[in-house]
Amino acid sequence: MFEKLVVVDCRAHMMGRLASIVAKELLNGQHVVLVRAEETNISGSLFRNKIKWADFRRKRTNTNPRKGPFHFRAPSRMLYRTIRGMIPHKTSRGEAALKRLRVFEGVPDEFQKMKRKVIPDALRVTRLKPGRDYCVLGRLATECGWKHYELIKRMEAARKVQSDAYYQKKKEADKARAEALSA
Asked: CB burial class (10 A; 0-12, 13-18, 19+) of residue 140?
């Protein structure tokens, strides 16, 4: 999938599978932008994932916790760290690969009119057995201390209204163009 820039919509993707595919693309030289990171799914119930995250949060440097490891609360940073774990980030090759990655909550203005792709191999509906528990990364992040979930939801609702208006206008223009060509 080598293109200049690939924008991936993370909604309803399994986090680990998405991360492994994106990591491989980054190492192959592809520039990747991940949007709507807060809509990524993780297998297992919210309760179970909260316990796992609390266990991860407990890990720190004993002498001076400010030296790390750092436990980011934002979904974009959680997803970034998951991808970082699949890349040899301490080498120059890995460092260059991570510079090709950008992760966002919601869809920023610069990517709103760009085609957003999905990764079929990482979609929840294709990978998770029906009836199995899963949780949404944004909800987990909120439970762990991220404070912007409601704000992102409001901004996404406004973006969807704007996007729908743009799409309707585009559809009318395409219809008028088709009529003009057929006449």
From this structure: buried
Cα distances (angstroms) measured from residue 165 to each of 113, 159, 162, 171:
12, 10, 5, 10
Q: What is the DSSP letter of 105?
A: S
Closest to 15 (Cα-Cα) out of 71, 73, 75, 79? 79
Report pTM: 0.89
Question: How do beta strands 41-43 and 134-136 pair?
Answer: antiparallel
pLDDT tens-digit map of 75-112: 999 999 999 999 999 999 999 999 999 999 999 999 98
Query: If residue 136 lies in a helix (H) or strand (E), which one and from where to where?
Result: strand 134-136
- How far, in Å, CA of 123 to CA of 98, rounded? 23
